[in-house]
Design brief:
It is built from 8 helices and 27 strands. The protein is an alpha+beta fold. A hairpin with a 2-residue loop joins strand 15 and strand 16. The radius of gyration is 20 Å and the shape is globular.
């Protein structure tokens, strides 16, 4: 597989943007099968962009809106249009997007889309790239539901991607595939053939606020009522945290919760979760991601100065993987949490500046800041991979 990335800041004149994109790929050798991924600023009129691209590109185009963009060679961009094309003779790509999702129909819609794509693919996929949009009210994130439905119907094929994002108004997120733009939906691409995908992720959590570990004793999906049989708001107040406000996402950006989640087969995965809301009536906490009963919970701390170091460590691990493999890797697709974007603030470029400079010239990277990330996590004891929804995490997919 080969790939190339191109960025344009032209968002107002999309005819000019299309011409820039075509010029940027004029020296690129398209093989028999291709797939394009686009991350873009929320104000881009995608329908018009696609009308221009379809004049020369007859292969699937997928993507979503993003808080900000990442790419090899140039690093961070606050807005614009980011395009990657992957192409191969020995791989097949199929892509599609659901209809508008609701809490009642999401599983049926995902099952139907996956069935259509597997029939079209005609081979067993080795990777699913997927981007979705939350569909529940008050930030009660449905990302775990989207991921779980896809994981089940695909029989646990690796899923990488995340949630579409915008500039934190949570109203302008979109996903798209070809001529179809969806506000509340899920887009996915299935890839079969000669690939060996690898996954890397880092949360940059320096340490725990305390050694205290709690157990979630009462919860409903992503709403936690009690830990160690005490209202979570009372425990947070005891630990000295902000509990006076209702919307506390910003207050807890540097203190993600580390949650160890047991799996049905006896394994477990450890992920970071962001606290979003505190319900003062019942003293519960609403998180950006599922918080199952029986999970262990600790409160972590983010060290801005350590972000660059931990990302570099993950990059070195990836480069070592490439060095020790007989596969020819060409492509990196990144998803970094918008919470990291906010927490790093004026130091945002520190997340990418160091490790992008270390990438070999034959590796092409595209990425975005999202409202949550999809990436398999390996149980350290069993070695089993579990498709998992993350917060405050940088995910890197290597193909």
């Amino acid at each position: 597989m080969k790939s190339k990335v191109f960025y344009t800041e032209e968002m107002d004149d999309l005819e000019a943007a299309v011409e820039e994109i075509f010029d940027g790929f004029s020296d690129f050798e398209f093989k028999s099968n291709s797939l394009a991924i686009i991350f873009m600023e929320e104000d881009v009129e995608y329908e018009e962009l696609y009308e221009g691209l379809r004049e020369k590109w007859d292969f699937p185009i997928i993507g979503c809106t993003a808080t900000a963009l990442l790419m090899s060679g140039q690093g961070y961009h606050s807005d614009g249009i980011n395009v990657m094309v992957m192409t191969a003779d020995d791989c097949r790509f199929v892509a599609g997007v659901t209809d508008e999702l609701t809490r009642d129909n999401y599983k049926e819609c995902i099952d139907r889309l996956y069935g259509e794509l597997t029939n079209e693919l005609g081979a067993e996929e080795k990777l699913i790239i997927s981007y979705g949009v939350c569909v529940t009210a008050k930030n009660h994130v449905a990302a775990d539901d989207l991921l779980a439905a896809t994981d089940e119907i695909s029989h646990h094929k690796p899923i990488v991607g995340g949630l579409a994002a915008d500039r934190f108004n949570f109203e302008d997120t979109r996903v798209f595939c070809n001529d179809k733009l969806i506000k509340n939906g899920q887009v996915m691409a299935l890839i079969a053939g000669n690939i060996e995908p690898r996954f890397f992720h880092v949360t940059s959590i320096e340490k725990r606020v305390s050694e205290q570990s709690y157990v979630i004793t009462k919860s409903d999906h992503n709403e936690v009522f009690c830990i160690d049989d005490m209202p979570i708001a009372d425990v947070l107040a005891k630990e000295g945290f902000e509990v006076g406000k209702e919307d506390v996402l910003r207050e807890y950006l540097l203190t993600p919760f580390i949650v160890t989640i047991p799996q049905p087969d006896g394994g477990e995965v450890r992920v970071a979760r962001n606290l979003s809301l505190i319900n003062h009536e019942n003293k519960s906490g609403v998180f950006l991601g599922a918080m199952p009963e029986g999970s262990k919970l600790q409160i972590g701390m983010i060290n801005r100065d350590q972000v660059k170091e931990t990302v570099t460590q993950a990059t070195n691990e990836m480069l070592e993987c490439i060095k020790n493999s007989d596969k020819e890797y060409s492509t990196i697709i990144c998803t970094s949490c918008a919470a990291r974007f906010l927490a790093l603030s004026s130091r945002i470029e520190s997340e990418v500046s160091g490790w992008i400079a270390t990438l070999p010239e034959n590796l092409n990277m595209i990425g975005m800041y999202s409202n949550g990330e999809f990436c398999p996590v390996t149980d350290e004891t069993s070695g089993v991979d579990y498709n998992t929804f993350h917060n405050f995490t940088l995910v890197m997919l290597l193909i």
